[in-house]
Every structure is written in C-alpha cells, then in structure tokens.
Amino acid sequence: MKKAPPHRAASAPARAKSANKLDKLHGVVRLLQEHNTSVRVCGTVSQITPGYYGISGLEKHVCIGDCIELDVMRPYGRGPARAEVIRIDEGKVYAKPYSQHLDVGIGTRVMRMGPVQLSPDNSWLGRVIDSLGRPIDNRGMLVPGRLSVSLEGDPPPAMERSMIEKPIRTGVRAIDLFTPLCVGQRIGVFAGSGVGKSTLLAMLASALDFEVVVVALVGERGREVREFIEGTLGEALTKSVVVVATGDESPMMRRQAPKTAMAIAEHFRDQGLSVLMIMDSATRFAQAARDVAMASGEPAVARGYTPSVFSELPRLLERAGPGRVPEHESEPCGAITGIFSVLVDGDDHNDPVADSIRGILDGHIVLDRAIADQGRYPAIDVLSSVSRMANKAWNKNEAQLIMKLKSMITRYEETRDLRLLGGYTKGADAELDHAMLLIPSIYDILCQTPHEMVPANEIDDPFRELSDALTAKEIKD
Questions:
Q1: What residue stretch is flagged as signal peptide (predicted)?
Q2: Residue 386 CB neighbour total at 10 angstroms
C-alpha cells in the first residue's frame, strides 16, 4: 500500500501570495464600507399574479417591508422598477409592485435594495412629489438631505413629548367657536362623499398660519391636484411640500404617500418648526393598506378590513402631535398639527375605520349631509363634533356660553318636526322661544364660503362676532 506523502509547510512565496490576496479582500471590504455600499443579492421571478410576484432566491436576504428592484421592459427600454416585500415563505418571497403596469416575466432578475428610506431637505419646500420622493412638478431633481430617514418612523416617547398649550384660530367660525384647535393637536374631518370635506380642508389650509405645510393627497381625483395646489395653496406653496398619489395609482403608492408626507413633516418638526400636516384621506390609506394585506394572504375580519389595517392606523397617526421637550427653554419646540379627512362609507359614522380613527385622534369634526342639503356650508354638525383640546382654547365664560348654545341647538332641532306640524304654540316654553329667536341667526353666522376666509393675521375673535350678531338680533326683535 502506497504511503501518503508527508505534510509539508507552505513555502514562503506561497504564504506571501496568500497574505497578499487576503489584504486585497480586506481592502475591498473597507472600500465598500467607506462608500456605504453593499453587495446586492439577486433572485428571479418565479410566479406572477395580478396582485403580487413570487420571487425565488431572496428568502434568506430580505425582511418584510424591504424594497426590491426588478429589471423589466419599459416603453423606453430596460430599466429598474420597484416593489416591496409583503410576505416571506420558505423558498419564496412575495412582493407587490409600486407600478400597476410592468412587463414582468418568469425569470426576470430581482435585486435587493434594503428598507425604503427618504432624505428630506429644506429645499423641498414649494415642491410636489410622489410617494417615493420623486418630483412630479417638472422643476428638476430634488436635493437630498444629509440624513436618510425611514418611512416607518417612531413617534417621540410618551413621557418625552411636550404638552399641548397654544390655541390657534382657523378662520372657520364653526370650528373656532365649537371645536377649537391647538398647536400639536390631531383632528379628523368625518363625512360621506360630496358633503364638503375637501373644501373644508382647503379653507383650513389657506387660513392656518404655520411655518411649514405638508399635504398628502391620497387617492384623490387627478383633476383636483392642480386645483388644490394652485387655487387653494396659492402663494402658500412656497412653504409647503405636497405628496400626491391619485386614485388611479397602485395601492402601494397610495399606502406609501401618507408615510412619505409624515417623514417630511417630522424632518421639519425636529428643527423646532410648527408644521401643519393635512391628509386627504385617511380612509383611502386604510383601503390601500387592506389591498396590500389581502395580497399577502391576510384574512379580512371587519367589513373586509384586515387586522393589520387597525395596527397601521395608530402607527401612522401617532407620529403627528407635539415633539420632544427641548433640552433648553430657549429652544423652540416643534409640533405637527394634523388634520385628517375620513371618508365615511355609506354615511355610517360607526364603520370600523371611522370608529378606529375617531378613537385615536384628539377630536373629530362631523359633516352632515342633511345640513348640506339645507345649503349651510361648511355642513358641520356642531352637536356631534368634539375637540378634546377645547378646554385649552376656551376660557371659563366661553366654555359656559358654548354649552348653553349647544343646549339651545339641541332643543331647537328636537322640536323641528313638532313646530313644522303646528304642534307648538309660541309662549308655551320660554327657553324654546328664545332658541327659535336666536338659532337661525347662529346658523347664519356659521355659514361661510372659501371666498370669505381672511388671512391668519386678520382673524377676529369669533366670540365677539357672535355676541355682536346676537345682540343686534335681540334688539331688532
């Protein structure tokens, strides 16, 4: 039997050659680290459905929420298209594309890009962008900021947040009287379709005096985008950033738009600025989140909505509000004042999404179709609307006056049918007689059109206007 040759130590030239290769490898690693880059892991498309793509070869290298890049055919030649990982199984990854029309085939190459991030910058003021932070206003590329932030940011810890103290005037008399707002508050505008949500948001956007305005138009009609930007914001666009995902875009884009807008708002809040965040609408964000969750195989539990929708809503809405307490008293405290519209399905204000959002926010403004049918705009139901920060804005006398007015309005509305049928004789109830005298005048005062809005620095005290009008009415009668 032939003996094995004895082990011999590597020669000096061989050891030097091996060490040289190792040094080169370390040099490549250092170069990658210095340039903040990483080796891209590739996979291939192995399954195609109308709602998602199945991808093989990436299951050990991605996480839920990671962005991937597909090398697809486009009208202008080959180019990358993005998708997001929504489910991971053994041997396969499921991803939903941001674009609805991609020429993807079996075997299309896919590369991992990592978590979706954004780099906001102060130069973005005055710009209109899409859900992925790409400009759509034909004004050139955006300048990226120095820091990249996650679109899934966390709100400040509860015990480190500032207190809400400062009231603000909106210029909308019905809101300033019955549901006053404060800086850092989050409030919802609840209404069915065609009752005036977007118009009321436009009135608030043009009246409120903030240092920065961030607008998320989610699932809106395409024709309304320029109307809102040029007609509503107007000159205020110079201090605004508008994020647009119209109704014809994919659920991924509609789900991403509010997160992109919130990340931008947090960028300015962290600089100590007072930011107004307007989202129209939160319901369409919930619907888009439902579509994505159902594509991942999640079952529906409440009127077609999946459980993850009711966890995504508070994660998003809680990011608005006051910022952290500043380290020094001289430093400004940034805050995000949030106004979110909620489309009430079938005028049912107790549908799951509306009910969930109402419990998260710091108040709700309810628009009633019956009031709109009477020609009273904004069609705010002052009896159903609530501001949880009202006590920060009212003084003692104003709070007592509003409670008394609400009592009178309730009495007036409860007896409307009785009075129309002739079942009430004037003089039988002194309080009702007083309500019948004053409530029509109060309704007239609350009526307001967008053209009647005044600049923030010219907004008068609504209580003085109400007092003068009611006094004049009593003297006249």
A1: none
A2: 17
Amino acid at 419: R
CA-to-CA distance for 445 and 462, rounded, in angstroms? 10
Judge contact between 140 and 422, C-beta under 8 A.
no
Is the separation of the CB atoms in 322 and 164 below 8 Å?
Answer: yes
Give which of 291, 124, 302 is closest to 219, Cα–Cα: 291
What's 59's domain CATH number?
2.40.10.170
CATH number, residue 432: 1.20.1270
Residue pLDDT, tens place only, 261-272 = 999 999 999 999
pLDDT at residue 469, rounded to an integer: 77
What DSSP character marks residue 307?
Answer: T
Q: Indicate the residue among 114, 132, 154 that finishes a domain.
A: 114
Pairing of strands 212-218, 274-280: parallel
Cβ–Cβ under 8 Å, residues 107 and 63: no
With bands split at pLDDT 50, 70 and 90, how would you rate the model's confidence at 33?
very low
Q: What are the backbone angles phi and psi of residue 168, rounded to the nearest 5°?
A: -130, 150
